[in-house]
Specification:
Helix content is 3%, strand content 45%. It is mainly β. Strands 2, 3, 4, 5, 6, 8, 11 and 13 form an eight-stranded mixed sheet that branches. The chain has a five-stranded mixed sheet with strand order 1-34-33-32-31, with no helix packed on it. It has a four-stranded antiparallel sheet with strand order 7-12-9-10, with no helix packed on it. It is elongated. The two termini are 33 Å apart.
């Protein structure tokens, strides 16, 4: 995917990091990952449909034969059966395998892509099969096939042909995230975690006191809204050169969304998230989710629907019981210099909670007033070097053009706040970081063309923002993106992580950009 940004003439000039010269990609930068298989057994969709019978073996036809195992019939080729075509209705790149039944007779069939000129003959090994003992075998057909509109064609070749299922394994090849070398200007952008065929969203990053990078996100999803979201985590012990396998922290019966992560002054990790039943909305609900939704009874809904935090005192190896909070925000609470944790979030308006016991319990301390002209949600807060708190808010205004971030400040540790006022920064949602030189770094998604991730700096504790030098971190193929979060590494450089599509025909993944700050003006 290209890395560039087109700058509309009416916008302030961008410091265009994604258009900067970048390193040449080598083999070490490339990775291939395979996702969870997609099973297809709906052979009643084969065409021509009048050549497929149900439980009736006749020469010149294929037979959908019901079996004593499983719910779907297998496809059985009868003598003189014509070629039939199956449309998997998939887009993207896949490995294809066929599950076949081995019997005491020599087995096999022809299979090809509709665009191929010749069939591949798949012979079914039947060593060990007898007249009373049959078994299933997997036959590899093709690796890394792009299936956009492609169909499969089966041919009867005079052998026992029993086809139980097709397995499509999503394959993605991508540029891995690799951090900048010591003297490299950058930026460096790449994939940190991809789950082919699955959706990743809404990450947060923390650099721990031990120098580890920990990223949490909602992963293993069907879509932006679905029942399957899980709170997941990856970590790096070498400043992002390599990343761990995915670890699942939460998998409630509901949709686990919006994961924040912090380290407290005591070294405790606190993960935040919220659960949702929004996938049950009639305009969203899919048939494949209905069975799961039907199993979620009233007691389960009452037990799990809400806003949550969870603590780990051993660097994420184990986690304590979930604790409910009264507010939620995509990137969660933050630790303060006085040892408290403060959580600015949505919950009956915009409210503020604090914890004085390392995240074990939470108490409400304030409401933040908001004018009716600002539709404030999804906030994040930062503590400035002078102790001042600055919170910024997504503004979900009905008019897309008016979705400028909101801002509020507190001079007394979060007990009172100014009324939320509109900034001139367009995007959503915000994440704030205080840098080692005292400047504030704001990152946010840009969900209108040119799509991508943006950054802006303040040299005066958030009183003004240098929007004239807004920074474009990366571009993206569409608006399903954002929720960026940043951390400063030991050399002063910045790692910003976010979710977006790596390729236009794929689902979003976890990506990162390693970049160096412009010199302070």
């Amino acid at each position: 995917m290209k890395r560039f940004v087109l700058v509309p003439l009416l916008l302030p000039p961008l410091l265009n990091l994604c258009a900067a010269a970048s390193r040449a990609a080598g083999p070490a930068d490339e990775a291939t990952v395979r996702g969870a298989p997609i099973w297809k057994e709906d052979f009643e969709r084969c065409t021509p449909r009048d050549k497929v019978l149900f439980d009736e073996s006749r020469p010149g036809f294929w037979n959908l034969r019901y079996k004593t195992w499983g719910d779907n019939p297998l496809l059985h080729g009868c003598p003189e059966a014509p070629d039939i075509t199956y449309d998997p209705a998939l887009k993207g790149v896949y490995d294809i395998e066929v599950e076949s039944r081995a019997t005491d007779r020599p087995g096999g069939f022809g299979l090809k892509l509709a665009s191929d000129s010749e069939f591949t003959i798949l012979d079914v090994p039947n060593q060990g099969a007898t007249a009373t003992k049959h078994f299933n075998v997997w036959l590899p057909f093709r690796k890394s096939v792009r299936l956009d509109g492609e169909k499969l064609v089966f041919r009867y070749i005079g052998k026992a042909a029993y086809i139980d299922a097709l397995k499509f394994i999503p394959v993605s090849r991508f540029k891995k995230f690799r951090p900048l070398a010591e003297n490299e200007l950058g930026p460096a952008t790449g994939v940190i975690c991809k789950q082919p065929g699955r959706y990743i969203g809404w990450p947060t990053i923390v650099r721990t006191s031990q120098g580890e990078l920990i990223v949490t996100f909602s992963g293993d999803r069907d879509a932006h809204v679905c029942p399957w979201g899980k709170t997941q985590m990856v970590r790096s012990r070498d400043n992002g050169k390599t990343w761990s396998d995915v670890v699942t922290i939460n998998n409630t019966p509901l949709d686990d969304r919006d994961t924040g992560v912090i380290e407290t002054c005591k070294g405790t990790l606190v993960v935040s998230w919220f659960t949702s039943l929004y996938f049950e909305q009639p305009t969203i609900m899919r048939h494949a989710w209905q069975h799961h939704a039907d199993k979620i009874g009233p007691e389960t809904r009452k037990q799990w629907l809400g806003y949550w935090v969870r603590r780990s005192e051993d660097n994420g190896k184990t986690w304590g019981s979930p604790c409910m909070t009264n507010v939620t925000a995509p990137h969660g609470p933050i630790p303060l210099k006085d040892g408290r944790l403060i959580y600015v979030g949505a919950g009956g308006g915009i409210a503020v909670e604090e914890s004085r016991d390392d995240g074990i319990t939470w108490q409400p301390i304030a409401k933040i007033p908001s004018p009716t002209s600002i539709y404030a949600e999804e906030p994040h807060v930062v503590e400035c070097s002078d102790g001042r708190l600055v919170a910024m808010f997504r503004n979900e205004h009905p008019d897309l053009a008016q979705r400028f971030l909101g801002q509020s400040e507190s001079e007394d540790g979060g007990r009172t706040w100014t009324t939320i006022h509109r900034t001139e920064i367009w995007g959503c949602p915000p994440h704030l970081t205080r840098l080692s030189d005292g400047r504030l770094l704001l990152v946010y998604g840009h969900r209108r063309p040119p799509y991508g991730q943006r950054a802006c700096l303040s040299c005066d504790n958030g009183r003004t923002w240098d929007l004239q030098h807004e920074i474009a971190l990366t571009d993206a193929p569409d608006g399903d993106l954002g929720y960026p979060a940043s951390t400063q590494l030991s050399d002063g450089s910045i790692l910003t992580i976010y979710y977006q599509k790596d390729e236009p025909d794929e689902k979003p993944c976890l990506m990162g950009t390693h970049w160096r700050l412009p010199k302070q003006r």
